[in-house]
User: What shape does this take?
Amino acid sequence: MSGQSSKRFRSPEPQGSVKRPNQEQDPQPVPQLEKAQELFREARKTDLYDKLFDLLDRETPPQEFELEACYSSIFKKLAQIIAGRDDIPVPPSNQCMTFLDLCNPNLEREEWGKKTMELSMKTLINYIKTEDEKKPTLQTPASDSKPAIKESVKTAWKTAYVGNAHELLKGAMNAMYQNSLERPCANFCAIIQGSGTGKSRLVDKLADSVFMIPMVLRPTGDRSGFPQGDMADGQPLIRFFCTKTTKETLELRVQRRYLLFLLKIIAFVDNWINLWKRSGLGIERVAADWKEYLGPPLSPERLKMYTTAIDPSPLRGFEDISDERVEFDHLHNRVKIFIDSVSKKIEPAQTDIQPVIVFYFDEAHHLSKTTVSAEPNRTAYQCLCKAFTYMMNAPVFALFLSTYSRLSETVPTNSRNFWSSHPMPSHSEGSDDNMNAPFVELPFDAWKEPSLVIEGTHSASEICSLNFMARFGRPLFWTVLENTPSIDHEEVMKYAMSKLELRLEDTSRDIFCKFPLQKLIPPLSVRVDLSFESNRDEAVFLEGLLVASSMRTVYSVPKHQQYIRGGYPSEPFVAEAAARAIFKWCHAKGLGRTRSTLLPAEQIEMIIAAYKTNIPSAILQWLELGLIEKGTREELVVRMLCTLAHDIAILKNPDHEHVNAVLGGVSGDVSFSQMIRVEDFLRALISEKYIGDVLDARPSNLRGEMLRDAFKDGYVHFTQFVKAGDKSTITDEAIYLLFLRAAAIEGYGNMASTDLVIPVWIPTNNSQYPDRWSMSAIFIQIKDRVDKQFILNDAQETFQFFTRPQTQNGRKLPYITIAMELGNIAAEQNKAPQPQVKQVSTVGRTKRKGRQAQRRKNSVQLSMPANPTAMRQTQETTEQAQMTVLTTPVCDTVQRIPPPTPADVKVISRELPQTTRSQALHIHPRYEIAIKGCSSRVYNVIGDEDKSQYSNILAHKDMLAEHPRSEDRVEAVRRMKPYWVAPSSYHWAKMNEESRLGAEVVIADNNNNNDDDEYYKNINEEAEEDLVVVNEYSDTEDAGARDTDAEDVS
Assistant: This one.
């Protein structure tokens, strides 16, 4: 620009314009400020202002890294002036206007402009001083300070590589390469996986044996990961790919520009190969020597290679590469000849079995953020992929590494993911089918030792330690802890918690991706195993975000590549981080600013209330938005109830070592991976009204001690749920291994009927070292509707759970079965009107009403099987009859309930074989509990006001539940026969008076007095109130036998 003013900027109060905290006056404010002013005076003579203005003025909003790259250089100089260091983080892109004002040559001409520049200068100086106080200089770290987590992540790279994932990748890459010959868009592949799974380390390891061209496209402002981004000619390498030259830039020109870049790199390789051959080294080490020569990002050799490659000057033999008149086939042949000539020097015995040169682009999702061509609109990623099609049939392959599967809303194609964004038009031959599905097989459970655990050698305290938990799953956390022994383990846990925050790579799109209670989505996805709908774009988008920013694992990508199959596998370290993240949120939500005025017990109750209210509320809102799969909502509710009971049991335990930290609000120190006594877990789960009866229950299959005594030393230990694919998982051996990983079991696939199994450890001989012989379990069955019978879960008969040979002596461990009948407790939305029921006869109706009233009066029932040969009550039965506990059917051998009796205990006739003393020695005591309903009446983890939330979660809505118009319009839709239901579907026919399909249904009197069957079958009648049932064993052996109970079953 012309007419720039030469006036010097002066502050109205030069002696006090720059102040440090607790200091009246900067000792040397004037020279410091003058140097800063001089810096920007020089900047106003450059084109920096024009560059920033053009970025902000273009049609497509600039990416954050583009803006930061523009002003990062001048900011580092300013930081050096103000703070004497240049490692202060570059201000975020929202500070762009500050730099724009200071670089504007026109502002200094006006008085108001000078004031604006003065304020902008103060803003930057204050930012630098604030950041300077947060972070000590890298040059002079405090001697007693703990290593920073980011430095520890870098150190973790020194760990010896474990596993064979690089061989898997090499084999997969070779197979894809062989199939890519003569097929466009098949000579590249994406590697997609969550953070910390070792993507960068994987390709770095592969570079020991494969000739790799590494490119890290991380922006300079991104300090969250490692390795650092590559640079070229003083700028981030990503800027070369994502700079849009003009608004009229054609796709072909961008492709050819990228192709020239790639060819110049291969020419650089050719020069190095020629020098390397003169050294006389063996060809078998060429890949490793090349890797050593290049070094890490920002090394002189890599800087030199990329600076040479981005130079727009022509390459010998390709002077016409930018000429649009040069046809694809002609240029493709020349490219192949050139690459073949270089690759034969690397691999003289070259074949079509494997590629010779492999390019990899780390942090490749940045390529999909910027549209670089206008005719048609294409991203940098798409144009770069098309550039590789010019190398078709040449021994070249490309890998694109990322955590992030960019979805269709962020790329100008109809695909949901950046790696399925076809670089060729859909009508191009083979373009739709040739693209390779992403590689996702990253290392998992790869530890420094071949075996992660050895049975019987890990104590209870070790199992609950962070160091032990970190060895499972992704390699990030154990490598950090292993290579930095002095690091605070809690800092690593906080680092894991920071990786469970839902955030967008492109913050400019944040307004389009708001989810209710979104801070809870990642941690709850870990804890209760949320599955997302694959037929809704919002859900697919959300799952991609969880992979990108919240450590969700990709299990598989279908061939069509329109969605991913992912989840949170068994990683106790990540699950612990999720539990702490939930607590941190509920702590802030429950207490707010009232903590200092409350007693400790009151604080705990308010935090627990936040758990009870907000977690089901969040699940409900996500269900209503169609984000979560609705097919398994009953199982989801039970996983949520058990998770709440687990966490609340920890918070309510006054002896827990971290309770004081809870009350003090030090959320990072709260451990949720501690073992919990079975009684404490049940107390947290079941309401106070019924818990006493549950704990006093005795086995249902033999005579034995009360539940509270049988499990007095038992512990549960789970922070997440894993899927059981076959029966091998439901054994004490597998349960022991899952107990070590703090995992409970949910059914999956052929095991879907298994529902849930929670491992229980019952120490034997006071041993603190769990093993398979000390494992039992809580088996949970789930029923969603009112049913007459509960299904008995015999762990030994169904699963052969206990594997200890019968010939071995030892205590037969007890186990618990819980049948949870949640019931269809919510009215269906827009449910079709039911035909009116007209009773022709009232026989049996009055009797049933009386029994309903009796059941409502007595809400907890205890089932005791009667002996077929004698009906006398033993002393034990008499004592139990005095309990405020009554009886209902519990298992599949239940007979009809007899008429009401004056006694407080109803006896259900159930024939059970008598158990002899010798038989009892081989039977594992089974404690049966049945819970009907889903409210605070039966569950302690449900608040009094929260039943409606569970009702709505469990509501089975039909396909018209979301119909936008009124009921009369819905009735019109039903007449279109989307499903058949009375009376809507039968309006077109005229039947006689006995029809059950019209507006009125008449039930004839068949004189059937089976009132209980009628009660259970008639779903239109009022259901029983919520209740808890326990089932107990009773026989007619003489009273003296009671004295030997303990001996028989011990």
Q: What stands out?
A: Residues 520 and 615 are 8 Å apart (CA to CA).
